[in-house]
Each structure stands twice: as C-alpha cells, then as structure tokens.
Amino acid sequence: MKLRNAVRRTSAALAVGAMSLGLVTVVGGSAHAVASCTGDVSVYGTLADGRLTYTQIEPNTGDRLKTLIGPNLGFTPKAMATLNFNTILVTSTTGDLYRVDVKTNDSSLGLAGVVKIWDGGWTFDKMVYDGAGHLYGTVDGQLHQYVVSEDKPSGPAHIGQHVVIDTGFVLKTLAAAGDDRIIASTSDGRLLSYKINGVGDWDRAVLKASGWSGVDSLSSPGGGLYYGRTNGGMYWYHDADPTDGDGSDIAYHSDDPVDASGWTQTLLSAYANNCAYVPAAPPKSVQGGTIYRSEVMARAKDWYTRNVQYSQSAYATDVDGDHSYRTDCSGFVSMAWHLTSSLTTQTLPGAGTQISKADLRPGDALDSSSEGHAVLFAGWKDQDAGTFYYYSEGSTASDMNYSSANVYSGTIDSHAASSYIALRYDKIA
What we know:
Low-confidence stretches: 1-32
Strand order of the largest sheet: 25-32-26-27-28-29
Largest sheet: 6 strands, antiparallel
Oligomer: single chain
Radius of gyration: 24 Å
Mean pLDDT: 91
C-alpha cells in the first residue's frame, strides 16, 4: 500500500481488509511520457452516510498524499461531476441538482455552501464533466450533454443547450478523459473510449476487450491518467496517447496501486481538467528504419494538408523534404511508412505482416492488390461496427482524401472492402 506514514492515520476511517485485484494483468510497454498536471490529482467522493471526501494523489507515482473527510451533504447523492477544484455538481436520489462549494486546506474539508440549483428532472445514473464546458449524463442507455457556462452555475441560465447525443450507452462506469472525450467500462469487461462530435456523431474504440469487469468506479483527471476502483482498492493507469483510440499503450500499475484497499466511497469524481495530454516527440525515423505511429500519421497529414495531386508518374517530397515518393495510393503509404522506395499494391505486403482487420491501429494500411488500391488506417470511428477513418491518395478526380468507411462491408475509397487485407509495417513501433 502506497501511503506516507502521516497519511496512514488519516485514512484509517476508510480502511478495509485488503482484497485481490480483479483485473487481467497487463505488462506495460515502453516508457511513457508523464501527464502534464497543474498539481496533484484531486478526487472527490461521498461515503454511504452522505459525507464528502477529498483525496489528493501524486500523478507521476500514484502515491495518495492525503484523504480528508468532510461534513454530510444533507441529501442522498446519486451522481457526481467535479467542475473545478472547489465546485462539484451532485444529484440527489429524488432528481434534484445541487452545487456543492468546497473549502479545504491541508488538514480539513469543509463546505462553503450546498445550493439546490435545479428542482427535479436530474435522474442520471452517472454524470461527468469534461473540464472544457460539457457536462454528460447517462440514463436508460441515453447519453445527454449540457453546456456549462459558469464556474459556479446557479441553474438553467448557466447549464443549458441540452441535447441527447444518442442511445446505446449502457455502461458500468463513466469518466471524462478530456475535451468531449469519455472513457467507460462495461459489465462484460471492456474498456471503451469515446470522442463526442455532436448529436448522433461519436467515435468509439475498444481500448481493452476484457479485464475490466471488476472495476466499479472509474475517474480521470485528464492527461491519459485513469483511476479504477476494484474491491475497494484504487489502481492507476497511464494511457500514453489518450486520443488515438488505442489501448495497447496503457501502462498498468497492478503491483503498485494508489491503495490496495480503503476506497469505500459510493461515488467518486476527479477534476477532469487537472492534467493535460502533451504528445511526446518520438525519435525521428530514418528512411527504411523503425518509425512510431505518431510520425506515420504526421507524415500522412502533411500530404493531406498539402493536397498532393494524384499521379502514377509524378513524385512529391515528404514532410522533411529529404525524399520523394510517387504520388499514387501505394506511393502515399510508402511515404507515410518512410520506406526506401515507392512500392506498389502488389509489393506493399512484402514490407509488412497481414493482421486481422479487427486489430487495425493508426498507421496500419489496407491493401487491395486485386483492385490496385491502398489506404492508410487513421483510427476507428466505431470499432464494434467496423467503421473507421482513413487517408488515401485517391485518384486524379479526388487526390488526397480523409474519409470513413466500413472495414468489413461496402466500399473503401470506391473499391470493395472484401478485397482488402490489413497490413502492419514490420518496422512500426
């Protein structure tokens, strides 16, 4: 248990017997960049008797620095969303919405006020604030969104523009991981990532296909840091790139939790704008050498931004201006992968390994030698449904494209999806 000696006494009221971690053990990959945080992570909670709690966690080590227990809120809480360091929105079991104003110091947690700002109608089973103006709530599988316009909202004048994003959001846990970004776990053990674009428009990726069924509470302060509670223990994770819809770069700390036990709160909520994601600068690749996915995507975006014109005979320089590649579909993929020459749709498979389409990650390719076309996979739109985004050097009529399609059916860039194979460059990191 990662506790400083002084904190052990503070947390005694919350401690329970140690219980085993109910997650699949995953070994973290290469070293990840540390999330950029404005300070220590702030996590608020409520106990079964209605008292408010505050916990401070060191973001780089996962050490819990202190836990403070405050007064009773005066009502039975149902859902909670932290707006900022000293302002929390909490719903009651009767559907009312309260603004809880917090005052805290190093040794005590108090309330500056508990104000009912909405009388009835707030029946969400889960509620989160993304730290960037949007409040989300789920009820009966619907995801609702509100715009919060004040740090201390006083009612409908400051919490409005209500829309229902969509249905189908049957989730066990819910947390806001950044601006219009949500992470959630399901009862069948999946960890999901959502990017909310608007009503009926959202992207969903499966970060982990299993192993998260034991998590009964999920919180995030942003920056790719996730905190999951299992059997009373709090465990922390770091997603090296929380924007890529790819869970293979999530580092687990199963043997080094925040606490192995003691987290008995009925609700938990982190301040979502506590930390920010700052992309790490990957090592620069050399032609034909190892290349990171982020660099592959940056190279692809450069041609898209420049709208490099399609030609099977012309050549264009890459983002560095050091090498030139043929400006057709396979030449584009060759450029993005930083190969030593411009391959064709027939020779691209020689530079990579065929993978399952379900395992596609940003920077992989879809190649159809029979149709004579190739595209670069840019990320999932809805991984469960098979929809995805891609970059392509399309044709003389369309040139550089950024579009979406279904990996299993229909057409991809005007060619049958069934004709494509999924390729992973052998030197991609």
